[in-house]
# Entry
Amino acid sequence: GAVVSQHPSWVICKSGTSVKIECRSLDFQATTMFWYRQFPKQSLMLMATSNEGSKATYEQGVEKDKFLINHASLTLSTLTVTSAHPEDSSFYICSAPGQGRPGELFFGEGSRLTVL
Amino acid sequence: QQPVQSPQAVILREGEDAVINCSSSKALYSVHWYRQKHGEAPVFLMILLKGGEQKGHEKISASFNEKKQQSSLYLTASQLSYSGTYFCGTEIEAYKYIFGTGTRLKVLA
# Structure
Protein backbone atom coordinates (compact mmCIF):
# COMPACT_ATOMS: atom_id res chain seq x y z
CA GLY A 1 0.00 0.00 0.00
CA ALA A 2 0.90 3.64 -0.28
CA VAL A 3 3.14 5.12 2.39
CA VAL A 4 2.82 8.54 3.97
CA SER A 5 5.54 9.68 6.29
CA GLN A 6 5.50 12.53 8.80
CA HIS A 7 8.39 14.23 10.47
CA PRO A 8 9.06 14.89 13.26
CA SER A 9 7.11 12.28 15.20
CA TRP A 10 7.28 14.43 18.29
CA VAL A 11 8.47 17.93 19.09
CA ILE A 12 8.66 20.06 22.21
CA CYS A 13 8.98 23.80 21.82
CA LYS A 14 8.76 26.97 23.84
CA SER A 15 5.75 29.22 23.68
CA GLY A 16 6.07 31.81 20.94
CA THR A 17 8.25 29.75 18.61
CA SER A 18 7.23 28.24 15.28
CA VAL A 19 7.25 24.56 14.44
CA LYS A 20 7.22 22.94 11.02
CA ILE A 21 5.80 19.48 10.40
CA GLU A 22 6.42 17.68 7.12
CA CYS A 23 4.18 15.18 5.40
CA ARG A 24 5.58 13.15 2.51
CA SER A 25 4.03 10.64 0.18
CA LEU A 26 6.86 8.19 -0.34
CA ASP A 27 5.79 6.05 -3.26
CA PHE A 28 3.03 7.99 -4.94
CA GLN A 29 2.12 11.51 -5.88
CA ALA A 30 -0.45 13.41 -3.88
CA THR A 31 -1.93 16.57 -5.35
CA THR A 32 -4.11 16.81 -2.26
CA MET A 33 -3.27 16.15 1.35
CA PHE A 34 -5.28 16.72 4.49
CA TRP A 35 -4.20 17.92 7.90
CA TYR A 36 -5.98 16.85 11.07
CA ARG A 37 -5.60 17.71 14.71
CA GLN A 38 -6.45 15.29 17.46
CA PHE A 39 -6.70 16.12 21.15
CA PRO A 40 -6.38 13.30 23.72
CA LYS A 41 -9.27 10.85 23.60
CA GLN A 42 -10.99 12.83 20.89
CA SER A 43 -11.65 12.35 17.22
CA LEU A 44 -9.63 13.63 14.31
CA MET A 45 -10.71 17.12 13.37
CA LEU A 46 -10.03 18.23 9.83
CA MET A 47 -8.03 21.45 9.81
CA ALA A 48 -7.31 22.10 6.16
CA THR A 49 -6.90 20.69 2.69
CA SER A 50 -3.47 21.14 1.19
CA ASN A 51 -3.43 21.60 -2.58
CA GLU A 52 -0.29 21.25 -4.65
CA GLY A 53 0.47 24.47 -6.45
CA SER A 54 -2.32 26.49 -4.88
CA LYS A 55 -3.49 27.85 -1.57
CA ALA A 56 -4.72 25.55 1.13
CA THR A 57 -8.38 25.62 2.07
CA TYR A 58 -9.09 25.86 5.76
CA GLU A 59 -12.01 24.56 7.76
CA GLN A 60 -14.18 26.95 9.67
CA GLY A 61 -12.55 28.12 12.87
CA VAL A 62 -8.99 27.27 11.83
CA GLU A 63 -6.72 30.32 11.66
CA LYS A 64 -4.86 30.31 8.37
CA ASP A 65 -2.25 32.75 9.65
CA LYS A 66 -1.47 30.53 12.59
CA PHE A 67 -1.39 27.22 10.73
CA LEU A 68 0.54 27.86 7.55
CA ILE A 69 0.30 25.13 4.96
CA ASN A 70 2.54 24.81 1.95
CA HIS A 71 2.29 22.10 -0.70
CA ALA A 72 5.36 22.80 -2.75
CA SER A 73 5.61 19.51 -4.62
CA LEU A 74 3.56 16.46 -5.47
CA THR A 75 5.07 14.55 -2.56
CA LEU A 76 5.44 17.12 0.21
CA SER A 77 3.10 19.22 2.30
CA THR A 78 4.20 21.16 5.34
CA LEU A 79 2.26 22.54 8.29
CA THR A 80 3.87 25.35 10.26
CA VAL A 81 2.40 26.23 13.62
CA THR A 82 3.39 29.86 14.11
CA SER A 83 3.83 31.53 17.47
CA ALA A 84 2.85 28.34 19.21
CA HIS A 85 1.01 28.42 22.53
CA PRO A 86 0.33 25.64 25.02
CA GLU A 87 -3.23 25.27 23.70
CA ASP A 88 -1.72 24.28 20.32
CA SER A 89 -0.30 21.15 21.94
CA SER A 90 -1.90 18.26 20.11
CA PHE A 91 -1.39 15.29 17.81
CA TYR A 92 -1.22 16.47 14.20
CA ILE A 93 -1.82 13.92 11.44
CA CYS A 94 -1.69 14.25 7.69
CA SER A 95 -3.30 12.00 5.12
CA ALA A 96 -3.40 11.57 1.39
CA PRO A 97 -5.77 9.69 -0.91
CA GLY A 98 -4.32 6.47 -2.22
CA GLN A 99 -4.49 5.27 -5.78
CA GLY A 100 -5.98 1.90 -5.01
CA ARG A 101 -9.28 1.32 -3.30
CA PRO A 102 -11.72 4.22 -3.75
CA GLY A 103 -12.02 6.44 -0.73
CA GLU A 104 -9.01 5.00 1.04
CA LEU A 105 -6.87 7.51 2.89
CA PHE A 106 -3.30 6.82 3.95
CA PHE A 107 -2.22 8.50 7.12
CA GLY A 108 1.15 9.65 8.29
CA GLU A 109 2.46 8.43 11.63
CA GLY A 110 1.39 11.65 13.31
CA SER A 111 3.37 14.37 15.06
CA ARG A 112 2.90 15.09 18.73
CA LEU A 113 3.48 18.75 19.52
CA THR A 114 4.00 19.91 23.08
CA VAL A 115 4.29 23.63 23.67
CA LEU A 116 5.75 24.63 27.02
CA GLN B 1 -21.68 17.86 11.63
CA GLN B 2 -19.57 15.07 13.00
CA PRO B 3 -21.12 11.57 12.89
CA VAL B 4 -21.96 10.24 16.33
CA GLN B 5 -20.71 6.83 17.37
CA SER B 6 -22.04 4.53 20.05
CA PRO B 7 -21.02 3.21 22.41
CA GLN B 8 -18.28 5.63 23.42
CA ALA B 9 -16.29 2.84 24.99
CA VAL B 10 -16.58 -0.90 25.39
CA ILE B 11 -14.60 -3.56 27.22
CA LEU B 12 -14.67 -7.14 26.00
CA ARG B 13 -13.17 -10.47 26.89
CA GLU B 14 -11.27 -12.27 24.17
CA GLY B 15 -13.71 -14.17 21.97
CA GLU B 16 -16.68 -11.90 22.64
CA ASP B 17 -18.51 -9.92 19.98
CA ALA B 18 -19.14 -6.19 19.71
CA VAL B 19 -21.11 -3.79 17.54
CA ILE B 20 -20.15 -0.18 16.98
CA ASN B 21 -22.71 2.17 15.48
CA CYS B 22 -22.22 5.34 13.49
CA SER B 23 -25.07 7.78 12.88
CA SER B 24 -25.11 10.92 10.82
CA SER B 25 -27.59 13.80 10.78
CA LYS B 26 -26.75 14.33 7.12
CA ALA B 27 -27.04 12.02 4.16
CA LEU B 28 -24.26 9.47 3.91
CA TYR B 29 -23.00 8.56 0.47
CA SER B 30 -20.18 6.42 1.71
CA VAL B 31 -18.85 5.29 5.05
CA HIS B 32 -15.42 4.12 5.94
CA TRP B 33 -13.99 2.65 9.08
CA TYR B 34 -10.57 3.08 10.67
CA ARG B 35 -8.88 1.71 13.76
CA GLN B 36 -6.33 3.73 15.68
CA LYS B 37 -3.92 2.38 18.26
CA HIS B 38 -2.79 4.73 20.99
CA GLY B 39 -0.25 7.25 19.69
CA GLU B 40 -0.41 5.90 16.15
CA ALA B 41 -2.08 6.92 12.93
CA PRO B 42 -5.45 5.45 11.95
CA VAL B 43 -5.43 2.35 9.78
CA PHE B 44 -8.02 1.81 7.07
CA LEU B 45 -10.37 -1.13 7.65
CA MET B 46 -12.98 -0.85 4.93
CA ILE B 47 -15.23 1.44 2.96
CA LEU B 48 -18.90 0.95 2.09
CA LEU B 49 -20.02 2.77 -0.99
CA LYS B 50 -23.64 1.84 -1.48
CA GLY B 51 -26.63 1.75 0.75
CA GLY B 52 -27.25 -1.74 2.07
CA GLU B 53 -23.71 -2.80 1.30
CA GLN B 54 -22.03 -5.18 3.67
CA LYS B 55 -18.37 -6.01 3.74
CA GLY B 56 -16.09 -8.22 5.72
CA HIS B 57 -12.46 -8.14 6.70
CA GLU B 58 -11.27 -11.20 8.63
CA LYS B 59 -13.70 -11.29 11.56
CA ILE B 60 -14.63 -7.65 11.20
CA SER B 61 -17.54 -6.72 9.00
CA ALA B 62 -19.72 -3.68 8.44
CA SER B 63 -23.09 -2.71 7.09
CA PHE B 64 -24.40 0.55 5.68
CA ASN B 65 -28.03 1.66 5.85
CA GLU B 66 -28.22 4.69 3.62
CA LYS B 67 -31.86 5.46 4.43
CA LYS B 68 -31.21 5.53 8.14
CA GLN B 69 -27.91 7.35 7.61
CA GLN B 70 -26.23 4.72 9.74
CA SER B 71 -23.42 2.24 9.57
CA SER B 72 -22.46 -0.51 11.97
CA LEU B 73 -19.16 -2.28 12.49
CA TYR B 74 -19.29 -5.86 13.74
CA LEU B 75 -16.37 -7.47 15.53
CA THR B 76 -16.77 -11.19 16.11
CA ALA B 77 -14.67 -13.44 18.30
CA SER B 78 -12.59 -10.45 19.31
CA GLN B 79 -8.84 -10.74 19.66
CA LEU B 80 -6.44 -8.74 21.81
CA SER B 81 -5.21 -7.03 18.65
CA TYR B 82 -8.65 -5.50 18.12
CA SER B 83 -8.08 -3.08 20.98
CA GLY B 84 -7.98 0.53 19.88
CA THR B 85 -10.23 3.39 18.96
CA TYR B 86 -12.56 2.91 16.01
CA PHE B 87 -13.68 5.81 13.85
CA CYS B 88 -16.25 5.94 11.12
CA GLY B 89 -15.76 8.55 8.47
CA THR B 90 -17.85 10.06 5.75
CA GLU B 91 -16.85 11.89 2.61
CA ILE B 92 -18.14 15.46 2.44
CA GLU B 93 -16.23 16.36 -0.73
CA ALA B 94 -13.89 14.40 -2.95
CA TYR B 95 -11.56 12.58 -0.53
CA LYS B 96 -12.38 15.12 2.16
CA TYR B 97 -13.60 13.21 5.18
CA ILE B 98 -14.94 14.00 8.57
CA PHE B 99 -14.65 11.44 11.28
CA GLY B 100 -17.06 10.22 13.91
CA THR B 101 -16.74 10.77 17.62
CA GLY B 102 -14.87 7.48 18.09
CA THR B 103 -15.39 4.29 20.10
CA ARG B 104 -12.67 3.04 22.43
CA LEU B 105 -12.49 -0.74 22.46
CA LYS B 106 -10.49 -2.72 24.97
CA VAL B 107 -10.17 -6.49 24.68
CA LEU B 108 -9.03 -8.31 27.80
CA ALA B 109 -7.40 -11.72 27.93
